Backbone:
């Protein structure tokens, strides 16, 4: 069996219409937005129209089931990824894994395959980090807390609890989305690499062995707004100069406290009052740091805090920060790495075992069940941008590998 590539393409393009911006060609489907929930309801309707059972749990996860009464109580093989996007994102990030999973169960149904255990396709909620990230996967694996639900907010100050209520969800119901470990046989995720390695090397498949940890801060440097023409340079409390100094320190921090897998990014910054003839009295910005080793992450956290404290003293600023999230690095299940590699060989696909510098839903499932993450190449390594693209032959190869893996886990080997 092979996936129907034309149908897979058509479904991906239809999903990309939700949140598509005709000016910059990006997709704006942030977690718990109206566009996000319109896409979720559309996918559930698609699944129901084809005879599948679909539902949304209290965390906003969409769950599509291929099952029958005689196997419904058995542990399920789960295919999952996310449906939300970053602002001005692309059409493959996250959604490929969900729609390829949907295509897998479509093919199995068309071939009247008799399963020995259920297959669930899950479109997780809020993976991209609007509220800290991976709300849906955390809920499913029992890692979501009441404190997180009630205190998390996005960079614009919108509360997670308020946005959930606006979509008809009771925030506390998200705690009931937890799956018991005995309900899960295994978890598979197909994703674009979001980096250049596979594309540059001409490799069809990445078999992920581990996923980088990440922490996110929201930082304030507070100085004094003043006239840009009359305040002497040496007498200013210029918040922007504090941010500029910190940005200059990043290479040093990584060299002294990081590794070759360390990434530190200032992704959003806002100057206040934000007027050309006024010295910035405050700058609010984000810091996102990643590494494959949690001890290194802890050292990076200390180094960033020390650097910002010293910079604040130098420029006569106040320094405040809030740690929005901390996601520990995770190893994919070794036997699943071997299993996926074997299936790639059986399909004559060339592959590379590799780490993931980006976070994925898989890192939460790896704590509760056998978990495997499959990459396909991203053209020129581009992701989180409108020109994110993967060639259709790579989409087809990755989807067929996913289908092969799921078949092997959901159907007993006949003696």
Residues:
């Amino acid at each position: 069996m092979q996936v129907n590539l034309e149908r897979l393409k058509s479904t991906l393009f239809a999903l990309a219409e939700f949140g598509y911006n005709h000016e910059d060609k990006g997709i704006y489907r942030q977690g718990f937005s109206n566009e996000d929930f319109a896409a979720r309801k559309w996918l559930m309707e698609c699944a129901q129209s084809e005879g599948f059972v679909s539902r949304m749990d209290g965390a906003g996860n969409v769950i599509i089931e291929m099952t029958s009464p005689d196997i419904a109580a058995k542990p399920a093989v789960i295919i999952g990824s996310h449906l939300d996007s970053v602002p001005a994102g692309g059409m493959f990030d996250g959604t490929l894994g969900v729609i390829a999973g949907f295509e897998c169960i479509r093919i199995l149904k068309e071939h009247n395959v008799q399963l020995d255990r259920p297959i669930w396709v899950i479109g997780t909620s809020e993976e991209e980090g609007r509220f800290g990230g991976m709300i849906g996967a955390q809920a499913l694996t029992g890692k979501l807390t009441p404190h997180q639900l009630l205190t998390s907010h996005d960079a614009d100050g919108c509360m997670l609890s308020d946005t959930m209520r606006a979509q008809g969800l009771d925030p506390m119901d998200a705690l009931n989305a937890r799956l018991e470990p005995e309900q899960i046989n295994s978890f598979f995720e197909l994703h674009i690499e979001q980096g250049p390695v596979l594309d540059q090397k001409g490799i069809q498949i990445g078999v992920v062995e581990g996923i980088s940890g990440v922490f996110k801060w929201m930082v304030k440097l507070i100085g004094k707004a003043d006239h840009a023409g009359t305040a002497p340079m040496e007498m200013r409390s210029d918040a922007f100069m504090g941010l500029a100094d910190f940005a200059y320190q990043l290479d040093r921090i990584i060299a002294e406290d990081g590794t070759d897998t360390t990434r530190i990014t200032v992704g959003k910054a806002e100057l206040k009052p934000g007027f050309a003839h006024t010295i910035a009295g405050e700058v609010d910005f984000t810091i996102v740091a990643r590494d494959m080793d949690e001890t290194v992450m802890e050292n990076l956290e200390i180094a960033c805090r020390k650097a910002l404290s010293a910079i604040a003293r130098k420029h006569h600023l106040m320094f405040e920060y809030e740690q929005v999230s901390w996601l520990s690095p995770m190893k994919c299940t070794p036997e699943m790495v071997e299993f996926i590699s074997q299936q790639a060989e059986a399909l004559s696909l060339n592959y590379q075992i590799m780490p993931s510098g980006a976070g994925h839903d898989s890192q939460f499932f790896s704590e509760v069940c056998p978990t495997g993450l499959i990459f396909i190449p991203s053209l020129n390594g581009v992701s989180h941008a409108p020109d994110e693209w993967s060639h259709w032959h790579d989409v087809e190869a990755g989807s067929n590998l996913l289908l092969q893996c799921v078949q092997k886990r959901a159907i007993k080997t006949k003696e």
Q: What stands out?
A: Residues 294-314 form the longest helix (21 residues).
